[in-house]
Structure formats: structure tokens, C-alpha cells
């Protein structure tokens, strides 16, 4: 009951030098707690989608934002995406 959020980050090479973080944020609700208790971690991506209104964010959404901002190359983002097809869909929606 003490867990309220889970944040993960992946560092990517920046176009400007150095590194920038791609993040994934899961705001913990009842469903996520149940999945964690049952060790059904494969369902947590679905929980991120369901809790977007609470602030959850997928890694692919974060990566798409970094590509839009020109901080990272599209190819670098695709290499680290857990769901590359989702990232491609987000980028196509922007015409990238």
C-alpha cells in the first residue's frame, strides 16, 4: 500500500552531446497493485494506459516527445523502445 508510483528511465545519447532520459511512469492504483502481488508484471503496460489521467506515461510517449523536440534521433529512440510499433505509430501521427 505504500507504493504510489514507479518511475523507470533509460539514458539515450543526445544530439547535442551528453545523454537525456527517456522515462516511463506508472501511477499505482488498485489494478497495478494486484498485478504486482500476483507477479503478473506483463500487464503493467496496460495499467499505464489506463492511468494516463493520473499522470502515467509510457516509455514510447516519452521517446516520441524527445524525437519531436529534436533531442534524440529517431533511430536511437527505436532501439530502446520496448514497443517500437507503438513509437512508430506516435511518430506517424506527427508526420515523422
Task: Outline the structure in words.
The chain is an alpha+beta fold. It has a single domain (5-93), classed as P-loop containing nucleotide triphosphate hydrolases (Rossmann fold, 3-Layer(aba) Sandwich), CATH 3.40.50.300. The chain is 44% helix and 19% strand. It is built from five helices and two strands; from the N terminus they run E-E-H-H-H-H-H. The chain has a two-stranded antiparallel ribbon. A hairpin with a 5-residue loop joins strand 1 (5-13) and strand 2 (19-27). Helix 3 packs across helix 5 (84-93). The radius of gyration is 14 Å and the shape is elongated. The model has no long low-confidence stretch (mean pLDDT 92).
Write the layout of secondary structure elements.
Elements: E1 5-13, E2 19-27, H1 30-37, H2 44-50, H3 59-68, H4 74-80, H5 84-93
Antiparallel strand pairs: 1-2
Helix pairs in contact: 3-5
Based on secondary structure, the structural category is alpha+beta
- Cα separation of the termini: 41 Å
The helix-strand sequence is EEHHHHH
Beta-strand proportion? 15-25%
By CATH, the topology is Rossmann fold
Gross CATH architecture: 3-Layer(aba) Sandwich
Low-pLDDT windows of residues: none
Q: Name the strands of the widest sheet in spatial order.
A: 1-2
- How would you state the average pLDDT, rounded? 92
Major sheet attributes: 2 strands, antiparallel
- How many E strands? 2
CATH C-level: Alpha Beta
Number of domains: 1
Shape: elongated
Radius of gyration: 14 Å
Q: Roughly what percent helix? A: 40-55%
